[in-house]
Write a structure and sequence with these properties.
This protein is an alpha+beta fold and 365 residues long. 23% of the residues lie in helices and 34% in strands. It has eight helices and 20 strands.
Length: 365
């Protein structure tokens, strides 16, 4: 395993599109880092730059102690697992897994030992004589991972490897990948647009937008302490509720009040220096609790239920608070119906305040 370092890396295509913009990140030995973000944010391009599949970029990429800017992909000692598995359809599982070792001139006995050892580890040892077309999606994914493992690379690069699997298989395969990393301890970089994958797999997640890193931190820190409004909106399901308003002095302290006065949320006293300034208050759906409507009190949002979605012991309540859509995740309550008046209670410590704009920084950090 090896440290992977990117220093001020940028990639601009001939048409002027800046896919990666000043990307700087140090990935430690044995760390599992996940790049996550919406389509077009630059995460796959960054992975391809590390792999050597993209050229004509600025900045420096190092694997271990070696700068690899001009090193061909085959000489970077990394292994990449693709979304479509990229298995040779005319070859058996054994031949697919052995191919890279044979090309390196590894002795036949050693090839056989490594392939069978890894196949047993991944529980595909009974499939070695089959061809990819005879395997399920999950089995093909294991073979693709196995082909990477037998090479014993310095780092694994995963490019959305689970996106072709059905929902149930994604969950089980995700758990297998996590367990695999904990056993191998090989430096791993994983690209996904699925925030759930990012939160469950990564030691650290890197949230990207418009080619730039918006935040790089452990999953819970990104969720609980998002650096800006974009990160807060992207990470978390259902997405965070946002209320555009103004910082005001209330009877019980400082608050953010929407223009129509329909929502007033208590915020930390240290924001008193921003009285009169426009901000955006954010509240995660699980931080909203139901209580009897009435009064327009600070920390209370009066709303009308529009729809409910049952999720086992919990449910999502979609409601309208004036012209604002609000989503709350609460304990299940069969009594709530569309058209019913409700109030959501919000604790001050659960309110985040952001500067205005898509990437407005978090003022409550």
């Amino acid at each position: 395993m090896a440290r992977v370092t990117l220093d001020n890396v940028s990639k601009v295509y001939p048409n002027g599109f800046r896919a990666v913009d000043g990307f700087t990140l140090d990935i430690g030995e044995g760390e599992f880092v996940v790049f996550v973000g919406p389509s077009g944010c630059g995460k796959s391009t960054t992975l391809r730059l590390i792999a050597g599949l993209e050229e004509d970029f600025s900045g420096t990429i190092s694997i271990g102690e070696r700068v690899v800017n001009n090193v061909p992909p085959a000489q970077r000692d990394i292994a990449m697992v693709f979304q479509n598995y990229a298995l040779y359809p005319h070859m058996t599982v054994y031949a697919n897994m052995a191919m890279a070792l044979k090309l390196k001139g590894v002795a036949r006995a050693e090839v056989d030992r490594k392939v069978r050892e890894v196949a047993k580890f991944l529980e595909v040892d009974a499939l070695l004589d089959r061809k990819p077309g005879q395997l399920s999606g999950g089995q093909r994914q294991r073979v693709a991972v196995g082909r990477a493992i037998v090479r014993e690379p310095k780092a694994f690069l995963f490019d959305e490897p689970l996106s072709n699997l059905d929902a149930r298989l994604r969950v089980s395969t995700r758990a297998e990948l996590k367990a695999l990393h904990q056993r191998l301890k090989t430096t791993s970089i994983y690209v996904t647009h699925d925030q759930e994958e990012a939160m469950t797999l990564g030691d650290r997640i890197v949230v990207m937008a418009k080619g730039r890193i918006q935040q790089a931190a452990p999953p819970l820190e990104v969720y609980r302490r998002p650096a800006n409004r974009f990160v807060a909106a992207f990470v978390g399901m259902p997405p965070m509720n946002f209320f555009e308003g103004t910082v005001v002095a209330g009877r019980s302290g400082v608050a953010v009040r929407t223009a129509d006065g329909g929502v007033t949320l208590s915020v930390p006293e240290r924001l008193a220096g921003m009285l009169g300034q426009a901000v955006v208050a954010g509240v995660r759906p699980h931080a909203l609790s139901l209580r009897a409507p009435g009064g327009g009190r600070a920390g209370s949002i009066d709303a009308v239920v529009e729809a409910t979605e049952y999720l086992g012991e919990q449910m999502d309540v979609q409601a309208a608070a004036g012209g604002q859509r609000v989503v709350a995740r609460v304990a299940i309550d069969d009594g709530l119906k569309a058209g019913e008046k409700v109030a959501f209670h919000v604790r001050e410590q659960d309110v985040m305040v952001f500067e205005t704009g898509e990437f407005g920084r978090n003022l409550t950090l």
